[in-house]
Design goal:
The protein is about 50% helix and about 10% strand. By secondary structure, the chain is an alpha/beta fold. The chain folds into 2 domains: about 160 residues, NAD(P)-binding Rossmann-like Domain (Rossmann fold), CATH 3.40.50; about 130 residues. The protein has an 8-stranded mixed β-sheet with strand order 3-2-1-4-5-6-7-8, with helices on both faces. β4, α4 and β5 form a beta-alpha-beta unit.
Length: about 325
Amino acid sequence: MIPRSRPVIALLSPGAMGAGIGARLTAAGFRVRTSLTARSDRSVARAYAAGMIAASDAELASCDILLSIVPPADADPLARRLMPHLATRRAKPLYVDANALSPNSKRALGRLLAGVGCDFVDAAILGPPPVEGSDNTRLMLAGARASDAAMLAVPGVAVRVLDGAVGAAAALKMCYAGINKGAAGLAVAMLLAAARNGAADALRSEMEIGIPDLFQRAQRQVPDSFGKAYRWIAEMREIADFLGDDPGAATLFKGMAGVFETLAADVAADRTNATLLERAIGEEQRGLGESGAGDVGANSRNTRPQSLDGADSA
């Protein structure tokens, strides 16, 4: 049973989303620990600014709730890293996985952690990193002990307990992210194709006339995707796994993974494609490269991949 007075929360990791949620939790009176081992200077600064406390893996395993918020590809390695410490604990933390994984991946992770006696909650974050005074960040919870994790509801983070077993929150996340980030991937692919074939100016003009809402969304999402594409590769593959019963849809998101993989490689190299995309959406005239993008928002110039540096958006 989780202490109801002042439970201690282990939160990994202090990326933009993790630090944002950590700040809301500490502001509400929770003690929040995190790992700063091998973290970037920026992550360390974010963690301390959020009021989080640096801790060893053994100390993290002694917390009441362990909240995992990392890039999808790092969710399983993180759990395996902590398992030796969890196995030695008589009192186990409630493991809340809030990563963009398919229902199959969530169930597999739950089985893995059950092997060391940890109860598991399937969680999903929808919306941008939380800020004071906003209610745009939503934490969905599913599983037998989802109601025990509902105490994570704090100002700035709305919590909803879903009906259903582990996998219910993951399914919602896959559908939401598929639409949201899939739209970004589609815009990247088609705007880049237009730029390569000399049709960028004409396409921009026609989008501004015929589908201005989609064009404005692309102006936000496309530059914002530059620094996040490397994390979205695994997320698109998780969505493809989720869509496995629909081969055409699954193939679509395997292709989206390829779109973001190509973009991430370009951003890490000479930014040839990124520059073409900036021109295609008129960013050079509008100066949008430094702005946020709704649910996908953060700094588009943050292009350095950092393992376990945390998810930034839904």
